[in-house]
Amino acid sequence: VREHARKLLEKRIKKPFFDARYGGSAERMSLDEFEEGKQWLNETFHLIRCEDDCLPSVNWVLELAKAAVLRYGVRGLVIDPYNELDHQRPSNQTETEYVSQMLTKIKRFAQHHSCHVWFVAHPRQLHNWNGGPPNMYDISGSAHFINKCDNGIVIHRNRDPNSGPLDVVQVCVRKVRNKVIGQIGDAFLSYERVSGEFRDADKDTAKKAAVAAANVAKAPQRKG
């Protein structure tokens, strides 16, 4: 929790929390800025934590999220990551049926409470991966993730220096149900190490990243 709070504070104050190497020559946040940031954290975020050793279930998360909506007026819920929830299911229920039922519960919660839900899921282990971004069907569990979501976004970071800039993140919008919200396409963001912010990449960097991404997409799958 403390580490998560530190990262949020650095994004808010735009200064490093520690006087450490990652901050470079940037000035460390002051005590007054720290206190202002703590107040902002308390007013903006409400953490849902499972203190027990057991994994939390989706029903458990939604019950506490409901309380946060009613008590604090929360309008956004981030479930991160899906892979660490308790996914026990009846023996007569397939994984596909379970995922479909779970996503239906989450959508009903969002609609009933007017609360946007960001559901973060990591891809399964990819075979013959060529280094490009995964797609929505690569999420471990079921294709229902892309079928039932309103908006599907893939966040990908290049890890091969020969394939483009390493500090650029590719944001792949793969599904948009309502055209008023936006459209399918890619965007490129640069990572600011000091504050942990992501900003629009400059035109030259974005162009290089886009060309590299296109080349990776054309590359044959690796044998493995």
UniProtKB/TrEMBL annotation:
GO molecular function annotation: 5'-3' DNA helicase activity; ATP binding; single-stranded DNA binding
Domain SF4 helicase, chain residue ranges per copy: 1-205
An individual GO BP term: DNA replication
Protein name: Os06g0671700 protein
